[in-house]
CRAL/TRIO domain-containing protein (Nadsonia fulvescens var. elongata DSM 6958), 397 residues
Amino acid sequence: MVNTISAGRIGNLTSEQELRLKDMWAHLLAASNTLPQSGTSTPATNGETSKIKGFFSRSKEEVKAPNGSNFDINSVLGDLEHDEMMSAFWNMLRGDNPDNLILRFLRARKWDVPKAIEMICNTMRWRLKEFDVEGIFHYQEAKAFEDDNSEFLLQLESGKCRIRGRDKQNRPIFIIKPCFHNPKLQSERALEEFTIYVIESARLTLKDHVDTATIIFDLSKFSLSNMDYPPVKFMINCFEAHYPECLGALLIYKAPFIFQGIWNVIKNWLDPVVAAKINFVRNKEDLNKYIDDNNLESDMGGNDDYEYKYVKPVDGENNKMKDTETRDKLLQDRKVLIEQFKSATLDWVKSTNKAENDKAANVKAATAVDLRKNFWLVDPYVRSRTLYDRIGLIKAD
């Protein structure tokens, strides 16, 4: 298992990348009416002060980008309020390190700060306006049973998509079996909400050192009657636009000849970064380059004889959600920790020498750990249990 810190994450940033991260936070803190007092910044890897002209403007609406050009954050906020956007960001955090969540967007936009901010704003708008992502994350499975939502329950019961095993880099594995999909049996919206449900569930299995997932499209029993373009396009858009840098590898297993024409359509939807992570694999030997036999299901030649069966909710599994007093106390603790992280980040952004930089960075890192601990304390009081909780895949640290 590999647990080294990959490039472009906290703990493995170049001086320039760290400055871009500081610039990003300066914009976002400006959006929250919290502004640095200094026009200088120091990367942790260098003891000398590095000045970037206009790096931290005092205006709430306008912050200078590193190249000196003006960037008006309102131009990408659109119909979102500043506080609304930041609230959505902190909700999206889950158990992640806030810096590493920001860095996903920076890496996806090749460290271009204005483009990364635009991407974050678009994602928060998508989570708030296009889909009730928090509602899907916290209640969707339980609500599907309460409302007898047969379309959503069908996705769970079919086994067409599940999370099972880890690859050689310790990344969780999504297994998608289109042979179990009938496009006529559910709406496009139901499939989209199910996709979000699975991605958000999988995020709870990630950690800072293992922050991407592997997807296997098992096409061994695929036929044209299973093909459904809209959900494929939606999944691609999710990983490209709203869950950046979450995809480690996508393996297309035993694609039949009839898939060639379909692939000619799909590949035009892919950006180069995602396309580079796609590999066609024909047999177990190809899969073994990524996944060992103990984490490979037997129908793909591995030793895991697991047979998917949906485990239904059990009485009392969500009892903690009734304890609003404990919930409110833990949520208040979380608010305090968020303010502590923002304060430490502000000190880090304002730092004018390496000692100040490192001191603030250490406080920030410790607070990020406390935020993760708090997330898992809060979780059973605000999120109904899912299949992945019942089978032990999702569990607190």
